[in-house]
Design goal:
Number of strands: 13
Number of helices: 12
Helix content: 25-40%
Structural class: alpha/beta
Order of helices and strands: EEEEHEHHEHEHEHEHEHHEHHHEE
Strand order of the largest sheet: 5-4-1-7-6-8-9-10-11-13-12
Length: 376
């Protein structure tokens, strides 16, 4: 089990600390830095500890930033892997690898094991998160997807981007700009991954692990994904994702149309795409009528014309689910966080991640060929 943070937040040295940390500031750097969370020494904090002023940064969850690689590319990773197999002599070890080299190396090693469940989940959060909020979200995601035996996920890549720390609707503009910058950085990371695949598996002594990678985006996190897709050239897209889950997506309902040239690339990238929407989503209602010039949102109104993608793209209506896990005012009124608040939505997501045929997923009814409704 491993949880990584991929962040384009500023790097700072907090007062009294000896190691670098990610900043809570709402500014971004051009590239993602990578950190690994330390769950080996993690202890669940008490309610009293959570209320203290110093319940921030590494007091929430310890993590270690990877060093930057000494050179670009993945030849060093190849040398280390071949050396470990006794095929090639090399003075390099895993300790010589930095950044994405180290992360891809560790994931390849872990995913090549014989564990029954070994999937990777890439998660992109929505708006109104500072870095401390992101660390708390990582803890929630670990409990939901790694600790839960219903989930096939064993590893999480948490995409941290500098969204506003305020939930005031006026901060939406700042988050939109940040999401665009973050999407461009994420695009570079995607190209790094495809380069890793080419460099490593060009050697016949190494074989693909044949495990699955999933992508889940929530709310404004879909804007980060859209920014990445804008920049991706179709000729360079590899089908490296199994399931894409778009949760309460705060993007235009037209994103799958050719004129947008963004989400219409997802069928090239993934085996299946699932749009989870809630027609009572208050947050997306605010977004539509105050910040998006009355443009209906994908996660509230559903997509426009997706006829040509109907075999790959599914729409799952969560309007009638019960918030039986988290039913505070925020969750019941907002109708924006079903993946956290509803066990019905969670069960549907788990079945999706397991790759069950969409017509055989339980707890939903079929409205037509690719549109479903989750029922009580």
């Amino acid at each position: 089990m491993a949880v990584y943070i991929l962040s384009n937040r500023k790097i700072v040295r907090h007062k009294g600390e000896r190691t670098d940390s990610f900043s809570n500031d709402e500014y971004s750097i051009p590239n993602f830095r990578i950190a690994k969370c330390d769950f080996e020494h993690y202890k669940e904090p008490t309610t009293t500890v959570k209320k203290k002023k110093n319940y921030t940064n590494r007091n929430i969850l310890n993590y270690t930033l990877f060093s930057e690689p000494e050179k670009q590319g993945y030849e060093d990773v190849l040398d280390v892997l071949l050396s470990e197999k006794g095929i090639k002599e090399s003075t390099l070890t895993a300790d010589n690898l930095g950044g994405s080299q180290r992360m891809f190396y560790e994931l390849y090693k872990d995913m090549s094991s014989t564990k029954e469940r070994n999937d990777v989940l890439i998660f992109i959060h929505g708006y109104a998160y500072d870095f401390d909020d992101e660390l708390k979200a990582i803890l929630d995601l670990k409990k939901l997807f790694i600790d839960n035996p219903e989930s096939p996920v064993e590893h999480i890549l948490f995409v941290s981007w500098p969204a506003s720390s305020s939930i005031v609707p006026l901060t939406y503009f700042d988050d939109k700009a940040s999401s665009i910058n973050s999407g461009s950085s994420l695009m570079r990371l995607f190209y790094f991954y495809t380069q890793f695949l080419k460099d490593i598996f060009s050697n016949r002594d190494l074989i693909p692990c044949n495990q699955r990678i999933h992508l889940m985006t929530h709310s404004m996190g879909n804007r980060v994904l859209q920014s990445m897709l804008y920049s991706l050239k179709r000729d360079n897209i590899l089908r490296v994702i199994d399931q894409v889950l778009l949760l309460n997506a705060d993007v235009s309902y037209k994103v799958f149309e050719d004129a947008e040239d963004s989400f219409n690339k997802l069928p090239l990238l993934a085996n299946r795409v699932s749009i989870y929407l809630n027609r009572k989503d208050v947050i997306l209602g605010i977004s539509q009528f105050t910040k998006n010039i009355l443009t209906p949102r994908l996660g509230k109104n559903g997509p426009g014309d997706i006829e040509k993608f109907k075999d790959i793209v599914s729409v799952i209506d969560c309007t009638f689910v019960e918030d039986d896990l988290l039913n505070t005012f925020k969750f019941e009124v907002g109708n924006h966080w079903g993946y956290l608040s509803s066990s019905q939505v969670q069960r549907d997501i788990f079945q999706n991640l397991q790759g069950i045929d969409r017509d055989l997923i339980t707890g939903r009814i079929k409205n037509n060929g690719n549109v479903f409704t989750i029922i009580s």
